[in-house]
Amino acid sequence: MIVEILLIAVSVSMDAFAVAIGKGLTVKHVTAGQRVTVGLWFGGFQALFPLLGYFAASTFSKYVTAVDHWIIFVLLAFIGGNMIREAVFEDDEENARETSAFDWRHMLPLAVATSIDAFAVGVSFAFLPINIFLAVVIIGVTTGLFSAAGLSIGNVFGSRWQKPAQIAGGVVLILIGLKVLLEHLGLLPW
Prior knowledge:
The chain is an all-alpha fold. It is built from seven helices and no strands. Helix 1 (2-25) runs antiparallel to helix 5 (104-125), helix 1 (2-25) packs parallel to helix 6 and helix 2 packs parallel to helix 5 (104-125). The model is unreliable at 93-97 (pLDDT under 50).
């Protein structure tokens, strides 16, 4: 069962990994503290949401899964659009203020948006013979590591092409949100 949990952990961490890459595109220099911050936010929420889903399986799952794709789409489209707006309309001096990009106002919506699908995973865990606490630790650690790596990967590419990379990062977030929405609406052929 550990292998299955690890595979699930890798699969649910991919949204956070992609968003972390987008975040890394917008930062001129990534510090170890920023890697830890991103890892804790994304890993923490990826661990929290399956736990919540596990305990709320019978009560709330039908309500959340009915609108989760809309929540993800709106959050990612808003954040992505804001990244594009900042790249196009704000001057370089404003973009240099990177520390606020890792405060709770920026990280919370990203962490929530990338973790909503983990809630559904937690719901499915409620119907399996699984140690939920071991599962959420594995999911959280895996996502944290992937997110920290994604931040660094995005930074390697973004530090060279700051504004175009920030626009690309915003577009990627919007496309991830759109993909989630279209998948849930059954409009994608795969």
